[in-house]
Amino acid sequence: MPNDYLLTVISNIGMISLIALSAYLLLISGEISFGQQAYFGISAYAGAIATTLWGWPLWMALLFGSSLAALAAGLVGLLTLRVSGLYFSIATLAFAEMVRLSLFKLTYQVEIDGELIGPNGAEGFGEIRWIFDNDVSVFQYTLLIYGVLFLVLLFLVLIERSRLGMIFRMLGQDPLLTRIQGLNPVRYKVTAAIIAGFIAGLGGALYAHSFTYIEPQIFNIMLGVHALAYGLIGGLGTVFGPLIGVAIDIGFLESVRAFQGYRMIVFGGLVALMLIFMPRGILDEKRVYWLKTNARRWFRA
Amino acid sequence: MLELQAVSKAFGELQVLHGIDLHLRPGTVSGLIGPNGSGKTTLVNIVTGVYAPDSGRVLLDGKDVSRASADQITQLGVSRTFQNIRIFNRMSVLENVIAALIGHDKPGLFTLLGSVREVDGAGVAAARRALETVGLLDQSNLPAGELPLPLRRRLEIARALACDPKVLVLDEPSGGMTPAETARVSELIRSRIAPGRTCVVIEHKMDLISHVCEHLCVLNHGEKIAEGDPRSVMSQPEVIEAYLGRP
């Protein structure tokens, strides 16, 4: 069985992949969100409150946190997606900062076994003990994370093959042309924002229960920027692109000792190089088309 | 069918259209010509809901659609192509045409979640028919962005044609083409696209206009200066002056 450090890296890749997939969904729909960390954070707090303070089972806490995140994403989308483009990006960043700063003010503590437990502003929220109370090992929790990630990937693969997925990609290429096909861009962009918020929420709630401690500072802009960069590095041609981006950053740059202290410099340089030489990432639409065509030929042969 | 009543439009201080009246005859091909900057594309953008007129009305089957959005106008049966080609470059040729059918169907939740290719076999068949009409069926699986310009124009026409629109607006369908390519697209419109359909063709090339249009309207500086049978319109002094200048 892998050691705990390796399992932590693997589970981290799984959880961060969820926020990367949420940013990816908006990217293919033509919107750059600097604020997916807000939904990750909302769900982390809501999910942790549900299990730790209210005694809910984890699956209900995941659904509760992610639904709250999706609701918030839908509201932000409704208010901002009419303006689109740069305005949307700035609005998402402003909302995420608003959420982060609000978490500094959030105090909701309940006495459990003689101790005050719950979010306490800048001190964060510790004692998220679901995995200890339920005797869940790191390995078992990692399996759970990858189970959720698998379901999300399956859902996104089905979305990509569906009419809805096609509309998202149409919007990403030309919103006016999409409108001229008889489709209301705002409706579908808000739909993408809601789904993306839910997926980021799943990652956040899992994250809170994995690390057993969360604080507002975790959900800062760097998390949102990384989530965006993973799709841009891994590629926007398939849902598997962002996973490659996460694996490169967390699985390689963060985990290999040689990069310690230089990770952000190498990562930033990598993003810049990708934007210059492969603006739609490693697995862009052309490469995915080439891979699919050749795979079909190979199977036929 | 489609009727414009005293349509005006200005962008800031620039008055682009001055009280244009236009009545499209059902089942005929009408040409809209005029020098650069005469307001042709603005008129098309108003007809297709991209812009709303400042004053006047656009009527479709007697219903006022002046304030309808572009997606609503499309749902009502008006399809168009663009002067500057607009296609979904990162999709296949077939997907570009299916895109039009998805929008036209007013998809509900369950339809949206269905597979693009399997939910509506009839839709895919319609897309293939449209591609066959414009001679692009053999290229249907190619990425649209890799097509040469004349074939991209044909793809736009196929996409506009796929939903069997009530009114088809072709904005410079031979823009950027050589004379031989123009002749081919002109024949395509006349023989396979126009019959039985209400079309508006915006063009500069008189060969194409005279080959396909049964009715002609001429704009100059945002005003309608002539309308009627193409031959008689083209011989009017105002039209000759607008195109060639005062002798």
Structure description:
The complex is a heterodimer of chains A (301) and B (247). By secondary structure, chain A is mainly alpha-helical. Chain A has a single domain, classed as ABC transporter involved in vitamin B12 uptake, BtuC. Helices cover 72% and strands 2% of the residues of chain A. Chain A contains 13 helices and two strands. Chain A has a two-stranded antiparallel ribbon with strand order 1-2. The longest helix of chain A has 27 residues, at 185-211. Chain A is globular. The model of chain A has no long low-confidence stretch (mean pLDDT 93). With 247 residues, chain B is an alpha/beta fold. Chain B has a domain at 87-164. Chain B has ten helices and ten strands. Chain B has helices spanning 40-47, 70-75, 93-104, 109-113, 121-134, 149-161, 179-193, 206-212, 230-234, 237-244; strands at 2-11, 14-23, 29-33, 55-60, 63-64, 78-80, 167-171, 198-202, 215-220, 223-228. The longest helix of chain B has 15 residues, at 179-193. Chain A binds chain B through residues 158-159, 161-167, 169-170, 173-174, 176-184, 285-286, 289, and chain B through 48, 50, 69-71, 74-75, 80, 82, 86-91, 95, 98-100, 102-104, 106-107, 111-116, 119, 143, 159.
What would you say about this model in short?
The complex is a heterodimer of chains A (301) and B (247). Chain A has 301 residues and is mainly α. Chain A is built from 13 helices and two strands, in the order ααααββααααααααα.
Q: Tell me, what's the shape of chain A?
A: globular
Largest interface: A-B, 25 and 33 residues
Structural class by helix and strand composition of chain A: mainly alpha
Share of residues in helices of chain B: 25-40%
Keywords:
heterodimer; A: 301 residues; ABC transporter involved in vitamin B12 uptake, BtuC; two-stranded antiparallel sheet; B: 247 residues; 6-stranded mixed beta sheet; 4-stranded antiparallel beta sheet
Give the arrangement of secondary structure elements:
The complex is a heterodimer of chains A (301) and B (247).
Chain A: H1 4-28, H2 36-52, H3 58-80, H4 85-105, E1 110-112, E2 115-117, H5 130-133, H6 138-161, H7 163-173, H8 175-180, H9 185-211, H10 221-234, H11 241-253, H12 263-277, H13 285-300
Antiparallel strand pairs in A: 1-2
Helix pairs in contact in A: 1-6, 1-7, 1-9, 1-10, 1-11, 2-3, 2-4, 2-9, 3-9, 6-7, 6-9, 7-9, 10-11
Chain B: E1 2-11, E2 14-23, E3 29-33, H1 40-47, E4 55-60, E5 63-64, H2 70-75, E6 78-80, H3 93-104, H4 109-113, H5 121-134, H6 149-161, E7 167-171, H7 179-193, E8 198-202, H8 206-212, E9 215-220, E10 223-228, H9 230-234, H10 237-244
Parallel strand pairs in B: 3-8, 3-9, 6-7, 7-8
Antiparallel strand pairs in B: 1-2, 1-4, 4-5, 9-10
